[in-house]
Amino acid sequence: MFGQQRMPTYRIFRMKDHVRQSFRWAAHTLGMANVKPRDYVEQEQTVEASSPYAAWMDVRESGQPLEVGDLLQADAGLLYLYKYVGLEEARWVMPEVKPEAAAAGLEQPTPTGAVTA
User: pTM of the predicted model, to two decimals?
Assistant: First the structure.
């Protein structure tokens, strides 16, 4: 018999309200979105689903649907930004650490798959 394949687990990141207001009015862009960890709050809730859209549906049915600007992050590190047009790929972008901050040990932990700008 074949082993049952485990469904991916998705972490939920809610966009902070003050950032969401400007995000809603920004022009829609195509392609990979760059997102900053400081603009999000990770939720305790996770969801197991066969795809990002299945996760979106499960969260929607939970009574706390994703809002425009929220993120789903697969356990493999892939990140999906919820926009008016659906889910689009995104990536974490970390600000460059200034040499004096790094020397003082002020670096922040980076989310899975983060890149520096």
Answer: 0.77
